[in-house]
Amino acid sequence: MGLDDPDQHFSIDFTIGRRMGTVRAVQSDLDDLFRALADPSRRHIVERLGIGSTSVTELARPLSMSLPGVMQHLVVLERCGVVSSTKRGRVRTCSLEPAALVPVEHWASARRADWERRLDGLALYLDEGERD
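Above: the chain sequence. Below: its structure as C-alpha cells.
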C-alpha cells in the first residue's frame, strides 16, 4: 500500500482533520482562560478563592464595584470553569476549581521548558566560543 492508495490518503486526511479540531478546541479553552484571567478584578477573585470558598458579598468587599458588577465577573469565571457557586437561601457561595487552571499551568510550563532549552543551547554556544 503506497501513498497513492486513496484509502490511505483518506485515512491520513481524516486523522489530521480530527487532531486539528482537538487542537483548536484546546486552544479555544486556553484563550477563554487567558481572557478571563486578564482582568485584575477576576484575578483578585481567583486569588481570594484560593484561600477558600466564600460568599459573593465577601468577594465584593475589597473590590470597588457593585454586587452586580462582581456577579458579571463571576459569570465569566464560571463559564470557563475556574469558579463554581452554590446558592443557599439568599447567600451565593463561590469556590475555586483548581483543575480548570491546569491548561494554563501546562502552557506556561511548556514555554518555560522551551526557553530553558534555548538558553542552555546559547550558554553552550557561548562556552564553545570562549574556548576558541
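The longest helix spans residues 6-37.
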